Amino acid sequence: MQPISRKALLFAGTMVCCLAFLANPGMSQKYEALQGVDTIKAVFDFRNGDPGFLYSHLQLVYTTYTDQMVRSSDDSPQFTVIFMSKSVAPLSRDRGQFSAEERKTLEKMDRLLAKMAKAGITLEVCEVAAGSQNVELDSIIPEVKPVPNGWVSSIGYQAKGYSLVPVY
Question: How far is residue 93's CA from residue 28's CA, in Å, rounded to a whole number?
């Protein structure tokens, strides 16, 4: 039997320490606000129609949803995104009003929305806003569910204990 090398011992010790740290359920201690929280429910109210703004903030919603600190408090947080006002127009596949660069960003946004829906994030679009922005509902990707009135939907989620996160 060969003796264990010093490097192997150091590596094994480091791995044990890392695993112990990652497995610590008290990791939510980094966020005092998460102490004692059993369920995380949030509804994100999107209204800004700038493609770059939308994409970067949707990435932030997804990153928050998958954040290990959030997951250490609640294995399956409940997130809903409601698109209202000018945020509806970029959801349409009719993107003639956007520049070539904005269309590339919107294509990335479509892929992100599909990824978000697959992960369990509910995506809704306000039909009132779609009408005011001249957006045909059948031009929106199927992962985004139309609701008659985004405000009513938001009120309903808040009545069920969801925290409102305005994204203007």
Answer: 40
User: How many CB atoms sit inside 10 A of residue 8's CB?
Assistant: 10
Report yes or no on 96 lying in a domain.
yes
What is residue 17's predicted lDDT score, i.e. its pLDDT?
44
Cβ neighbours for 66, distance < 8 A, ≥ 6 positions apart: 119
Distance of CA 75 to the CA centre of its chain: 15
In the prediction, which pLDDT does 22 show? Answer: 43
Number of domains in the chain: 1
Query: Is 51 a member of any domain?
Result: yes
3 state DSSP class of 148: coil
Regions of the chain where pLDDT drops below 70: 1-29, 74-75
Asked whether the whole model's pTM tops 0.70, one would answer: yes
What's the confidence (pLDDT) of residue 5?
A: 56
CATH number, domain containing residue 86: 3.40.1260.10
- Domain assignment of residue 130, given as a range: 32-167
